[in-house]
Write a structure and sequence with these properties.
Blueprint (H helix, E strand, L loop, with lengths): L12 H16 L12 E6 L5 H12 L3 E6 L11 H11 L2 E5 L3 H10 L4 E5 L5 H15 L6 E5 L4 H13 L2 E5 L2 H4 L3 H8 L4 E4 L2 H4 L5 E4 L23 H4 L7 E4 L11 H4 L6 H19 L4
Parallel strand pairs: 1-2, 1-3, 3-4, 5-6, 5-8, 6-7, 8-9
Helix pairs in contact: 1-5, 1-12, 2-12, 3-4, 5-6, 5-12
Length: about 300
Amino acid sequence: MSNSFIDLNLHKKEDLRRILDSAIAIKKNPERYKNSLTGKQLAMIFEKPSTRTRVSFEVGVNQLGGNVIVLHNNNMQLSRGESVYDTAKVLSRYVDTIAIRCYQHSFLEELDKYSEVPVINGLTDYSHPCQIMADIMTYEEKKGSIENGTVLWVGDCNNVLTSWIHAAAILGFKLRVSSPKEAILDYQPLIWAKKQNSDVLWYEDPKEAAPGTDLIVTDSWVSMGNENNANYAMFSSYQVNKELLSLAKNDFIFLHCLPAYRGKEVTAEVIDGPNSFILDEAENRLHVQKAIMLWCLKLL
């Protein structure tokens, strides 16, 4: 489906800007949009646990006048071997949009391939585009256009970073990535960014990358489902703390997609401090996903 929302790098700059601008308009005047999805049905498929993704999508659809059906993978026929093809074709007869939060990105891509309705990426092991759209919305509320900004990512090369890299290339802002050498080995999004001539640079030392930074972003050192293979020692020098932030601009902001582990990837002093906007960031998932759904259904 051409109007699916799978990865940010699959969209033109004007489409992402339209979604972001619409999200801000929806947040400012929610009453104007309250009947936008009347009669529309959203199916949500979950392989992974969820707090913000499920609640923000479900509340968002309800506030727009639509309905939500929540499906857990282990309660679907998929868990008994039904094909993705059959699942996609059948759901397309019932609902208007499908949102999915799953492990393998290839599963999402296969679902989108066979679906006759738009599919929205609620998170995969590869990327998390809805989250980064909410992050950018939060940044622009506080500091203006992100195209004039410098973003610093500190930590693992994970799905959230992938979508930050895609966003930097499409929207044209500076992104500095500070991760251990071991983490970036064969990390394809960085290779892709270089081919796009985007302003995405890698630094092994986060202190070298921090000067001039407008936004500092991090995530848990170990992604969901990889806890048994955790190598916390590798990330011991990649904590976002007061010392690191002293190198950033005075009016920097801090974001974290949550869940957060205070004392590991970020100190409590930072995440609960005056420059942290994690709750605005979490709330903006609701508004930006409303805009994404309306864009997918060509209602913007």
